[in-house]
Amino acid sequence: MNTHRLKRPLSALSAATLLAALVAAPVPVRAEPSLGSGGSTATQGAKADSAQTPSPDRTDSPAEADAGSEAITDTVLQVGADSTARNLSWMSESAGGGEVRWAPASEVDGGKLPADADKAETTDSGLATDLKRHFNHASMTNLEPDTEYAYQVGSEEDGYTEVQQFTTGSAGGDDEFLVFGDPQVGAGGGDPDDAAGWDRTLSSAAATADDPSFFYSLGDQVNSAGNQEQYAQYLAPEATRTIPQATTIGNHDVSSKAYEQHFNRPNVSQDHGGGGVITSGGDYWFIEDGVLFLNINSNSPDMDAHAEFIDEVVAEHGDQARWTVLGFHHSIYSTATHWDDLDVKRLRKAIPPVAARNDIDLVVSGHDHIYNRTFLMDGEGKPVEGSEAGAEEEKEDGQTLYLTLTSSSGSKFYDYVPGLDWEGKSVHNDVPAFTRVRVSDEALRATTYEVPAGGPPADGERAEAQAAAEQIDDVELRRAEAEEPAPDDDAGADAGSGASAGADSAAGADDAGANDDADSAGTSDDADAGADDAGTSDDAGTRGTASDSAGSDGAGSDGAGSGGVGSDGTDDENGTDSGTADAGTADSGSEADAAEADATEANAAGTGDDSDSSGTASASGDGDLPRTGGGLALPLAVGAGALALGATLLVVSRRRRGAGLS
Q1: What is the pLDDT of residue 189?
Q2: The pairing of beta strand 284-288 with beta strand 86-92
Q3: What is the pTM of this model?
Q4: Pairwise CA distance, residues 346 & 339, whole Å
Q5: 296-337 pLDDT, tens per residue?
Q6: How far from the centroid of its chain's Cα atoms is residue 253's Cα?
Q7: Is the Cβ–Cβ distance between 577 and 546 less than 8 Å?
Q8: Which of 14, 119, 302, 367 could be a cystine partner for 649, CB 3.0 to 4.6 Å?
Q9: What integer is the mean pLDDT of 620-648?
Q10: Does the structure show a pLDDT above 70 at 32?
């Protein structure tokens, strides 16, 4: 009888425990792409929002209300594979059935698209990471150059957005685009208001530029990878719907699928720089303004894969462009505290030879919240002899200019580190900034402006906006005039070129394992190995825990960057960032092979390297934030433990029942 009484409670408890395990860690679902991208089968005349009823016999555009549909949020206009395409992403209440409609702006009548507007169904959709909404991707194709277009997105179930407009770039003429360092919306915690700062910088840049064809955000769009509210704030400015954008994935973006869901990137490689089940990633490329843009996920430590991606894309598409630009998040030539992180040093060994052999003209990065322009750099990662970092730079084949962009929101800034070999011009005024790049056949001209508090005028007049944005740097990059060789010199020139290519290849091969003393600017690689012993802080100008009140983010307590595990640091009441360093960090004075391996594993797992957040979404203290990315670690552990407990209880229950029966 005693055994019989025990059997039932144990079985009920086991079942409850197993049920808890199943619901403890909901993993985001990614739906398969919908059928095709051609014409929609949905009927026209769909509802515009819940407050309006569609006319059953209407045959023109579905946009019935000026306000647009409240069921559609986070609309993002993005670059396509080339200037004839534009990609879109948005969030919706309903699943499936979404589409984009577009037409020349000249055909818009009364704020509505014509009945024969082009349309394309979603190419990808699924449940969003918050498990409440659905993400949607679609593309507009066959666009003409120098043309103003109007578009809207939506579905019959959710209605359609307001009609928005954008302009395509020219066909081979002079163009320009904008570049921004880390917006990192959410890092300021409201003081400063980084969402307002990002809006101010983006608005000022759009008013300063002359019809930019797109803008380029260099990673850390948000502070917490899975925070949907931060994405909503990043996408709040109107320019995100009227100027196409391209994004690079930062360490604060990587540890959730939210990045991939919000940004419909073109030509994403499935084999290079990819993410994981709950992380984002993927190297990708596009051509715009006659420029080949390559983007790599610098959170991924697989340098061979990145090199292969760059080599293959340039070999196949390099002759279609007049300039080549490479973008990734972790700057390898900054003048702030991340310069000697292990992941940055690994990139600094790998990138220069790849850039040289592919004749990449310009590299743009963020991560260190400081502005720096290098000298022209060669394939060995050294300043080119004679390069003076002046207003004009004349490059030979294989020489590259590197720009590090500072915060575009003013959320945080890092301490300046003087005396680094590559510093051509550094500005560290703790003021948000942006860069305007003008493109012609003859030159790339990069002009950088700081945006003081107050931003552009409400009306956005260009003259006033330019006055508000103070120019802090201006450089024009040109190619050296090629000297025509004498007829008898052709064979020798070809032989020399082949030898140079072979040298580049050898340099790239050496990067895999050799230690390059030069990349530390006279500092031994050993220095960073011991700098992150748990809880130890260094001078503010080097590494260790730094105080936010001093204008630094405590960059030294990095996880992935220092060989430690990058866990979310928390700001204490004194404003000092704290992070957990890996207990297995190498002792000072020894080469940090083990630490570098730890950093590689941390990066591969999608662990961010900023001690204040580390790019890991946190489910604690944020209300109904989704459990995604790094935020899944705790519920997954709880779920695994619950499964083990449930299984044990079931076994005990069955044994006791068997004993009772016997």
Answers
A1: 81
A2: unpaired
A3: 0.68
A4: 11
A5: 999 999 999 999 999 999 999 999 999 999 999 999 999 999
A6: 6
A7: yes
A8: 14
A9: 48
A10: no
Can you tell me the distance from the alpha carbon of 359 to that of 317, in angstroms, rounded to the nearest whole number?
13
Residue given tokens 């979603």 in the structure block = 122
Among 630, 628, 520, smallest CA distance to 135 is for 628
Element housing 463 (H / E): helix 462-468
Contact 137, 87 (CB under 8 A): yes
Give percent above pLDDT 90 in the chain.
56
* Alpha carbons 410 and 430: distance in angstroms, whole number: 7
pLDDT above 60 (res 460): no
Dist CA 527 CA 523 (whole Å): 7
Please give the helix or strand (H or E) that residue 263 lies within, else none: none
Q: Which of 271-285, 488-502, 642-656 has the lowest mean pLDDT?
A: 488-502
| 3-state secondary structure (DSSP) of residue 324 | strand
Question: Quick one: CA torsion of 325, 330, 335, 337, rounded to 10 degrees?
Answer: 180
Highest mean pLDDT among 348-362, 541-555, 647-661: 348-362
pLDDT at 385: 93
Write the DSSP string, 95-131: -S--EEEEEEGGG-BTTB--TT-EEEE-SEEEE-TTS
Q: In Å, what is the CA distance from 122 to each residue of 33, 39, 125, 132, 228?
A: 8, 10, 7, 19, 21
Q: State how far the Cα of 174 lies from the Cα of 297, in Å rounded to an integer.
A: 29
Q: What is the DSSP letter of 567?
A: P
φ, ψ dihedrals at 48, nearest 5°: -90, -40
Q: If we measure between CA atoms, which residue out of 27, 615, 528 comes closest to residue 299?
A: 615
Cα–Cα distances (Å) from 329 to 216, 326, 545, in that order, read: 11, 10, 22
- Which long-range CB contacts under 8 A does 303-306 form with residues at least 24 apart? 303/346, 303/347, 303/350, 303/511, 303/512, 304/512, 305/271, 305/272, 305/273, 306/272, 306/273, 306/350, 306/354
In the numeric block, which tokens belong to residue 294? 């390559």
First to last CA, the chain: 12
Per DSSP, the three-state class of 297 is coil
Residue 393 has pLDDT above 60, yes or no: yes
Residues 6+ apart with CB under 8 A from 454: 200, 468
Residue 85 clears pLDDT 90, i.e. is over it: yes
Per-residue CA distances from 50 to 91, 154, 472 (Å): 17, 13, 49
How is residue 357 annotated by DSSP?
H
H/E run at residue 450: strand 443-450
- Which residue from 57, 164, 55, 51 is spatially nearest to 101, judged by alpha carbons? 164
Distance of CA 315 to the CA centre of its chain: 25
Per-residue pLDDT, averaged over 372-384, amounts to 98
Instruction: Please provide the average confidence, as pLDDT, over all residues in the chain.
Output: 74
State yes or no: pLDDT of 249 exceeds 60: yes
Distance CA 645, CA 52 (A): 53
Which pLDDT score is estimated for 654?
59
